[in-house]
Write a structure and sequence with these properties.
Helices cover about 50% and strands about 10% of the residues. It is α/β, with parallel strands linked by helices. The chain has a single domain, classed as Glycoside hydrolase/deacetylase (TIM Barrel, Alpha-Beta Barrel), CATH 3.20.20.370. Strands 2, 3, 4, 6 and 7 form a five-stranded parallel beta sheet that branches. The protein starts with a helix and ends with a helix. About 40% of the residues are buried. The model has no long low-confidence stretch (mean pLDDT about 90). The structure holds zinc ion. The site of zinc ion has 5 residues, from loops. Zinc ion binds next to loops.
Length: about 240
């Protein structure tokens, strides 16, 4: 009896330690999963997905590109409706499409950094994160963009090194709280319009992709703008939205 007890006790303790480790690891994984999935939370630094306000102000934001053939079209729509927008651009696409980049810089809309290569940045090293962001900022400046540059992570996702870099460099992360594209074959212009109208509230940041895809998002924009204007909404750049809320 005296001999078996300690063995059983030790075995029991090992089991408890193992169980604890397993539970802790699971919780950490669940926590990381929640952070990764949640575009409205970031471990460090300043993240904005919308602003809290009673004013009927909202921001239209467009991710990716620029791309030839689409840039002029979206600029024409915004110009026709006289509304400002914010474009989150990729460094590589700017380099490959200098004419469109120049158009965007000269348009007066707000431009932001959406990384150079549009990679998944979740597990990227600090040096690689710095390279993705700094090379893109550099191109925006080389094309003559003078405004403050906020950052939008590719796929809206960040975990450790990216938030640390953004915090260390005082860069604001901008995500969204209205995402009407589902990318599952149901994205008709009418569906994108309907979902936008349902999700919008004062202070919203709307995410749309107009540079690539089948053109449904681009086609939905005039109706989205007119309908929101009719409801009394005023369009702002993200920078204006933050400062005027
Ligand atoms: Zn993107």
């Amino acid at each position: 009896m005296p001999k078996t007890r300690p063995i059983f006790y030790q075995y029991g303790r090992t089991k408890i330690v193992l169980l604890n480790t397993l539970i802790s690891a699971s919780l950490i994984m669940l926590g990381c999963g929640w952070i990764v999935k949640n575009e409205q939370f970031q471990l460090l630094g300043n993240l904005i997905s919308h602003v809290e306000t009673n004013k009927k102000i909202i921001a239209l934001t467009f991710d990716d590109g620029p791309k030839a053939g689409r840039t002029q079209k979206i600029l024409d729509i915004l110009n026709h409706e006289t509304v400002p927008a914010t474009f989150y651009l990729n460094g590589r696409a700017m380099k490959n499409n200098p004419k469109e980049t120049k158009l965007l810089v000269e348009s007066g809309h707000e431009l932001g950094n959406h990384s150079y290569n549009h990679p998944r940045m979740l597990l990227m090293s600090y040096a690689d994160v710095a390279d993705e962001i700094e090379s893109t900022d550099k191109i925006l400046r080389e094309f003559g963009y003078q405004g403050d540059i906020s950052f939008r992570p590719p796929f809206g996702k960040s975990l450790f090194m990216l938030p640390l870099y953004l915090k260390n460099n005082n860069i604001t992360t901008v995500t969204w709280n209205v995402a009407p594209e589902y990318f599952n074959g149901s994205d008709t212009p009418e569906a994108i319009y309907q979902r936008t109208i349902e999700q919008v509230k004062p202070g919203s940041i709307i995410l749309l992709h107009v540079m690539y895809g089948n053109g449904s998002s681009l086609a939905a924009i005039p109706k989205i703008i007119r309908s929101l204007k009719d409801q009394g909404y005023e369009f702002k750049t993200v920078d204006q939205l933050i400062n005027e809320s």
